Amino acid sequence: MSFPLDRTDLAAIWLTLELATLTTLLLLVVGTPIAWWLARTRSRLKALVAAVVALPLVLPPTVIGFYLLVSMGPHGFIGQFTQSLGLGTLPFTFAGLVVGSVIYSMPFVVQPLQNAFTAIGERPLEVAATLRASPWDTFFSVVLPLAKPGFVTASILGFAHTVGEFGVVLMIGGNIPEKTRVVSVQIFDHVEAMEYAQAHWLAGGMLLFSFLILLALNTSRRLKPGWT
């Protein structure tokens, strides 16, 4: 019996994992200060920033992908900026996929982190202040350890959501084998070609992956102290 997945399938799987890993790491770096600000600020801009971060939850992926495609194209403001730096344009490149994925998966990382920061409360921060800890010391020595469950949840959700993307990555990356063709697009190609056996293997793998992610999330939450 021959292996059910060919080289293009394996390349799509690898590219998807690479994209999801890089996107998750970038989101943790970018999303942590945004979540911390949202959890702590009393600024009137809080509602506006929170709404912008949450937009991918309600907007169709094709809408986000379209505007990203236009803005990153040769005549868009992002495209003109990247061209001025000698980087060319981002659409139909792996870098473009990363940018689109970071924006599309932003709320799945920021919101769990914001909830974790909010749940810490004021008391630990006040104790750290009485011990004359600097803001940086307080954040890394007190906030981060207490918010660890939030970081775990944010990492899992960000990674899983990026793996399941379709509309945004198709709009921005197109369908270039071994460069921008991720698993969701590969499944679409197999279905279009009526290659249902290959589509079943990839779709089944995605289904199993999604189930295991949700199972891991629910298990980790039940293991937390005080969970009922």
TrEMBL record:
The chain crosses the membrane at residues 12-36, 48-70, 90-110, 196-217. This is Molybdenum transport system permease. Keywords: Cell inner membrane, Cell membrane, Membrane, Molybdenum, Transmembrane, Transmembrane helix, Transport. The gene is modB. InterPro entries: MetI-like (IPR000515), MetI-like_sf (IPR035906), ModB_ABC (IPR011867). Its main location: membrane. Residues 13-219 form the ABC transmembrane type-1 domain. It comes from the Bacteria. Belongs to the binding-protein-dependent transport system permease family. CysTW subfamily. It is found in: Cell inner membrane; Cell membrane. The keyword Transport applies. It is a multi-pass membrane protein. SUPFAM superfamilies: MetI-like. Part of the binding-protein-dependent transport system for molybdenum; probably responsible for the translocation of the substrate across the membrane. CDD domains: TM_PBP2 (cd06261). PANTHER family: MOLYBDENUM TRANSPORT SYSTEM PERMEASE, MOLYBDENUM TRANSPORT SYSTEM PERMEASE PROTEIN MODB.
